[in-house]
Amino acid sequence: MHLHRRNRTLRKNESIRKMVEETTLRTEDFIVPMFIIEGHRKEEDIPSMPGYKRYTLDVAVEMAIKYRNLGLRSVLLFVKCKNELKDNTGAEALNPEGLMQRSIRAIKTAVPDLVVMTDVALDPYSTYGHDGIVADGEILNDPTVEVLAEMAVSHAEAGADFVAPSDMMDGRVGAIRRALEQSGHTRTGILAYSAKYASCFYGPFRDALDSAPGFGDKKTYQMNPANRIEAIKEVLDDVKEGADIVMVKPAVHYLDIIREVKNQVHVPVAAYHVSGEYSMIKAASEKGWLHYQSAVLEATLAIKRAGADLIASYFAPEIAGWLQER
Ligand code: PBG
């Protein structure tokens, strides 16, 4: 055929393929989400997230040490708030002795060089399961932002390295930044869930935290999955308001958004491989329909290839183990 070049030359064997590989996963790329519950020495299964668990704080601290020993650098904390402590204003979210604040202190004390990031949103604390204060069936923006800013300061006070607002209220990144500055927390970062879509793939997470909305849905604050340009608007707003890292969520179903965001900003871009995306791979593998490790690595590599500098993932501990074996 007298071809000018044969592209298969670069795929001839494993050594050549490795030499020209464009994207590689590093243990440092990952953020490990952790679900923390009240009590002592307990781990609970989450039925819709096989293999992932909720831990009491004492066990969570041991897990954090384990993660750090695997080479992981960062955790993202979520707490399951007791029903009797839930209300419409998120009062418990501001409690200096609340589960989140105690968790931040305990993990930072046990593993000081593990980067602790914290979820900032009202849904786990809300009787309505919404990310904001509810009045007449509406999720109020400005009063919610005030609480979120106080919540962020309370996490910073406890020692959080980054606060991660996941609520999608307007103006919250700027308000959090001002509150952190005014309270002297000038070294606390903001990882903003900037392009967070109203996705069905959060279902298993809401089981994990018992945080499903009690009425309606989250479409008045989270984004319409049909929209692409709007994600850029959200991201640019958050960068202008002072976000250190911006995040796209979910991940595998939104690879185009990750790439588009990566091309538009000069801050690190994170992506959240969410609970439903995790459970899909788990379920298909348990049925023998997918090869587990191959599916996990291919999906995760795709997120990185799309442009994610950081990946929040329930697969992170397992992936870190695999990378260590290599
Ligand atoms: C809540 C929050 C959600 C997730 C992270 N923070 C759920 C939601 O918005 O209902 C989802 C994470 C996942 O599905 O893995 N503010």
UniProtKB/TrEMBL annotation:
Its EC number is 4.2.1.24. This is Delta-aminolevulinic acid dehydratase. Pfam families: ALAD. The lineage of its organism: Bacteria, Pseudomonadati, Bacteroidota, Flavobacteriia, Flavobacteriales. Keywords: Heme biosynthesis, Lyase, Magnesium, Metal-binding, Porphyrin biosynthesis. Pathway: Porphyrin-containing compound metabolism; protoporphyrin-IX biosynthesis; coproporphyrinogen-III from 5-aminolevulinate: step 1/4. It comes from the Bacteria. One of its GO terms (molecular function) is porphobilinogen synthase activity. Belongs to the ALAD family. GO terms for cellular component: cytosol. It comes from Schleiferia thermophila. The active site is at K196, K249. InterPro entries: ALAD (IPR001731), ALAD_AS (IPR030656), Aldolase_TIM (IPR013785). SMART domains: ALAD. GO terms for biological process: protoporphyrinogen IX biosynthetic process. It catalyses: 2 5-aminolevulinate = porphobilinogen + 2 H2O + H(+).
